[in-house]
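New to this. Look over this protein:
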Amino acid sequence: MKFGLAALGYAAVFVVSAGLFYQRHLVELQDPVGVSGGMFAFGDMLLHLFIGCLFLVPTTFLIWIIAKVEGWYHTYSKFLLGLSLSGPVCLTMFLLGEEYVAQSLGWFCLFRIMGSPLVLAGMGISRLAARFDRAKRLSSYALLAEALTLGTTVAVFIHG
């Protein structure tokens, strides 16, 4: 029952996201020249950020559901650790540039780095929900790795 509610939450977020993207597409069709500027791109970025935050709502509910079962949450914590370790790899690959990394992989790494604050928020929620020692430890490692990656990313882009 609870998994059904989580799935319903994800479905609702998908429907809202599709509606928002469709509305944005209609605006692009009405004024193709006006939407090619930086202000429209910033609006797109804010829309993507908003949708990412919307996905955190059912994800938080799902984390709360699986936190009650040690085996599931331990597996989820391992996944979180792997996800957090993808951050430094993506940062390194992005910084290597196009001469060493394919352009499509570089774009993927850029989006992974840009999504790091949302990933960090999800990991923080996961750490707070952890009830078992192994899951707490793995979630803490994942949270630390993601925070260090985000801090390194900010430092690299500030000091360039």
About this structure: The longest helix spans residues 2-30. DSSP finds six helices and no strands in the chain. Residues 67-160 form one domain. The chain has two domains: 1-58, 67-160.
